[in-house]
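input
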Amino acid sequence: MLSKLREQVIRFINSKKQYPIIAAIASGLYPLLYYYNANFTLVNSWSQFRFFILGFLLIPCIVFFVSNNIFKNVNNLKRYSKFIIPILNFSVFIVLLFISVFQFEIKIISLVLLVTTVLGIIFYKQLNKVIVLQSLLAILVLLQLIPDFYKHFTYSSQWIVQPDAIEDVILKKRPNIYVIQPDGYANFSELKGGYYFFDNSEFEEFLIQNDFKLYQNYRSNYVSTLSSNSSMFAMKHHYYNNIKSKVNELYNTRQIIVGDNPVISIFKNNNYKTFLMLERTYLMVNRPEILYDYCNIDYSEVSFLARGFEIKKNIVEDLRHSIQNNSSSNNFYFIRKMLPSHISIRKNESKGKVEERECYLNDIKKSNQSLKEVVDLINEKDKNSLIVIVSDHGGYVGLSYSLESKMKQTDRDIIYSIFTSALAIKWPEEAPDFDNKLKTNVNLFRVLFSYLSEDESYLEYIQENKSFSIIDSGAPFGIYEYIDENGNIVFNKKVN
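output
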């Protein structure tokens, strides 16, 4: 069988005949598979799959077929017909590959088209060899994609199933609820020392004057927005789904965060309207089904090639309109603010530990101002509401770049810099006696629902207040417990 395949490949390479459709498929297939391999969790929706099949394969097939017929049948163009398919093949292949890696930049694309036109003219006789090479590249990357496809189609949401009947909870207290999440905002206690060493007293005083209770030493259970928020809204630990190999992101997290979770189900079961207010499209890039009743960003605004930071919405204005237009209903808002974020992600982006810290602290100041605007707006329009300010993780200050968090760390202040998270709550009445259960994100909503339902039995199933990270350097690859139930630094590998 292999010998026959080899003969067919050799025959194809030696053939002087051009095959427009094969050339078109070969030019788009590798860039398509490369994009999926590099960004699988950003493009794993059926609507994106249809977009990529259309843009990377079907449209090139039509363009190649029509162009070939035109050049072969128009007298003034016949002399150039032998060049058109090679030029198109080189151009489509390089342009789509460039877009897959760097996104669309018209000036560079124009230069690429000029270069590929010259290459197509020079190497037109080698077209079939180029097609074989492109096909081999596609096969190699397809083999790398098989584990991603397998995980995607065998993903189980069993981990999200609750250990009790909390999804049937009846809420007796029914204030409007605003959960505001400033990305990467370190806890107030951690900002005072460690590698932050920042005086945030002016903002703390603002919160206290506005009847917020500050929760010191609060932290996240996971290191990133997606891993932390998916656990928070699931009210369960996922333990990174006990991954066995290196992956870029946890599967299905965006779908969970934008509505496929017990928190949103509970609010809807209790006749709350639910609102997702986003500054950026980061949670929408793989086009998950949004199960909130309203989102301030429509998918018509989101590119199929989006990475999540292309547009910025004015949260304050969007929130103002929403509050005014929904004054007669019980409402739940999840409001995502992108500052202060965290230090640079990759080594080549880092400005060094000192400057990264300064940039982060400057963003803390900007975040403070932004949070004041949101809090003032809510207090003006909805005085008796429940307001929660909760971060998803820390700012990673003390590291040179955030991906260093995947290397084994032993410094207590570094580890807490990764997991520390701000929590401040304005309770409509007195804070409940059991708010000392508020230690990590995974239990936030379980405590809130216990308060709103006036039923402390739900606290019997509080999840463990441990913090976990994936480590791929300095220790055998795996999921490690970094902070234990009592806040002590440990380094225990998670065993299934």
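quick obs: The chain has a mean pLDDT of 91.
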